[in-house]
Amino acid sequence: MPGTPPTRFVYLGPEGTFAEQALKSIPAAERGSRTPARSVPEALEGVRTGEADSALVPLENSIGGAVGVTLDELAEGEPLVITREVVLPVEFVLAARPGTTLPHVRSVAAHPQASTQCRGWLRAHLPDAVVVDVLSNGAAAAGAAAGEYDAAICAPIGAGRHRLDVLADKIADHPDAVTRFALVSRPGPPPPPTGDDVTSLAVYIAHDRVGALLSVLMELAVRGVNMSRIESRPTGEALGRYVFFLDCAGHVADVRLGEALQGLRRVCADVRFLGSYPRHRFPGTGDRPIPAPAGLSDADYADAAAWLARLRAGDLS
Amino acid sequence: MPGTPPTRFVYLGPEGTFAEQALKSIPAAERGSRTPARSVPEALEGVRTGEADSALVPLENSIGGAVGVTLDELAEGEPLVITREVVLPVEFVLAARPGTTLPHVRSVAAHPQASTQCRGWLRAHLPDAVVVDVLSNGAAAAGAAAGEYDAAICAPIGAGRHRLDVLADKIADHPDAVTRFALVSRPGPPPPPTGDDVTSLAVYIAHDRVGALLSVLMELAVRGVNMSRIESRPTGEALGRYVFFLDCAGHVADVRLGEALQGLRRVCADVRFLGSYPRHRFPGTGDRPIPAPAGLSDADYADAAAWLARLRAGDLS
Amino acid sequence: MPGTPPTRFVYLGPEGTFAEQALKSIPAAERGSRTPARSVPEALEGVRTGEADSALVPLENSIGGAVGVTLDELAEGEPLVITREVVLPVEFVLAARPGTTLPHVRSVAAHPQASTQCRGWLRAHLPDAVVVDVLSNGAAAAGAAAGEYDAAICAPIGAGRHRLDVLADKIADHPDAVTRFALVSRPGPPPPPTGDDVTSLAVYIAHDRVGALLSVLMELAVRGVNMSRIESRPTGEALGRYVFFLDCAGHVADVRLGEALQGLRRVCADVRFLGSYPRHRFPGTGDRPIPAPAGLSDADYADAAAWLARLRAGDLS
Amino acid sequence: MPGTPPTRFVYLGPEGTFAEQALKSIPAAERGSRTPARSVPEALEGVRTGEADSALVPLENSIGGAVGVTLDELAEGEPLVITREVVLPVEFVLAARPGTTLPHVRSVAAHPQASTQCRGWLRAHLPDAVVVDVLSNGAAAAGAAAGEYDAAICAPIGAGRHRLDVLADKIADHPDAVTRFALVSRPGPPPPPTGDDVTSLAVYIAHDRVGALLSVLMELAVRGVNMSRIESRPTGEALGRYVFFLDCAGHVADVRLGEALQGLRRVCADVRFLGSYPRHRFPGTGDRPIPAPAGLSDADYADAAAWLARLRAGDLS
Question: Which of A67, A266, B291, C190 satisfies CB 3.0 to 4.6 Å to B295 for a cystine?
Answer without folding.
Answer: A266
